[in-house]
UniProtKB/TrEMBL annotation:
InterPro entries: TLDc_dom. The lineage of its organism: Eukaryota, Fungi, Fungi incertae sedis, Mucoromycota, Glomeromycotina. Pfam families: TLD. It comes from the Eukaryota. It comes from Dentiscutata erythropus. This is 4701_t:CDS:1. Residues 13-189 form the TLDc domain.
Length: 239
C-alpha cells in the first residue's frame, strides 16, 4: 500500500521509483540503492519540457534558486535516458549590475562542488554513474544555457543538448549533440531530518562526501581526512 501511494506521489514521465532510489543512493555514496522505505529524499517536479516548454528562460524561471536538483533527459528517437545531479542552486549567473533600462545583467559563473554527478539509465541493468573529476568545472550558471554540467552535459538551446567528456569520469552518451524528446527537473529535499541524521551516521561512506565550500579549502581529490570528517558528522545536508 505504501509503495503504491509513493508511486502516485512521484510524478515523472521518464524515470520510475527504482531509478529514484538508485539516484538517492548515488547522492549518499552508497554501494546499493535505497529501498522505498529507506529513501530519505523527496523529489518534487519543477519542470517538464513537454508540459512547460523547452526554452532556456522557462528553465531559469521554474528551476533557479530551488536548491539541489536532478535533471533527467529522454533523448529523441533513441530510448536513451541520461541526467545529472546538482547539489547547489541553478542561476542565470552572478549579478554584475543593471543595464540602461534597469534590467539585471548576469555574468556566467563557474560553481565549485565535489558532489555533482551525471549518469545514464539507458540500460537499467548496467547504469553509468560519472562523478565529477574537476570540481571547479562541475556546474556552470549561464543565462544563455539551461542545465549546465560543464561540457559533459549541457542544454545549449531549446531541446538541443551537448555532451563532451571532459570534467566528469565517464562518457554517458555516445552522441556529442542530440535532441531531447522530453526532460524533467526535480527539486531534491530531505523528508525527515531526524531520520536523515541517523542515516548519515549509520549507512553512508563518508570518505566520498563533501559540503560545498570555497574550492581552495578542499584537497584536489575531494576525499575527506579524519579531521574534516569529524567536522562534517554533526551536519545534515544534501550535497
Amino acid at each position: 500500500m505504501e509503495n503504491r501511494e509513493r508511486w502516485r506521489q512521484f510524478d515523472s514521465k521518464i524515470i520510475n521509483l527504482n531509478d529514484i532510489n538508485r539516484i538517492a543512493g548515488w547522492i549518499d555514496y552508497r554501494q546499493i540503492p535505497y529501498s522505498y522505505q529507506e529513501n530519505p529524499f523527496e523529489f518534487k517536479l519543477l519542470l517538464r519540457g513537454s508540459r512547460d516548454g523547452f526554452g532556456i528562460d522557462t528553465f531559469h524561471d521554474l528551476c533557479d534558486n530551488n536548491g539541489a536538483t536532478i535533471v533527467v533527459v529522454k533523448v529523441e528517437n533513441s530510448g536513451k535516458v541520461i541526467g545529472g545531479y546538482n547539489p547547489i542552486n541553478w542561476s542565470k549567473g552572478k549579478i554584475i549590475g543593471n543595464d540602461y533600462y534597469g534590467r539585471i545583467i548576469f555574468r556566467d559563473y563557474r560553481c565549485y562542488t565535489c558532489n555533482s554527478f551525471i549518469f545514464s539509465l539507458t540500460n537499467r541493468n548496467d547504469s553509468i554513474l560519472s562523478r565529477v573529476n574537476s570540481p571547479i568545472e562541475s556546474i556552470y550558471w549561464s543565462s544563455r544555457k539551461g542545465p549546465y554540467f560543464g561540457d559533459d552535459l549541457c542544454m545549449s538551446s531549446s531541446s538541443t543538448w551537448n555532451s563532451i567528456t571532459r570534467f566528469y569520469e565517464h562518457k554517458i552518451i555516445s552522441e556529442e549533440t542530440f535532441f531531447a524528446e522530453d526532460y524533467e527537473v526535480f527539486q531534491v529535499s530531505i523528508k525527515n531530518h531526524q531520520i536523515r541524521r541517523k542515516q548519515m551516521f549509520e549507512n553512508v561512506d563518508y570518505t566520498g562526501i563533501l559540503c560545498v565550500l570555497p574550492y581552495d579549502f578542499w584537497p584536489t581529490n575531494c576525499k575527506l581526512g579524519n579531521i574534516l570528517l569529524s567536522m562534517l558528522l554533526p551536519r545534515t545536508f544534501i550535497g
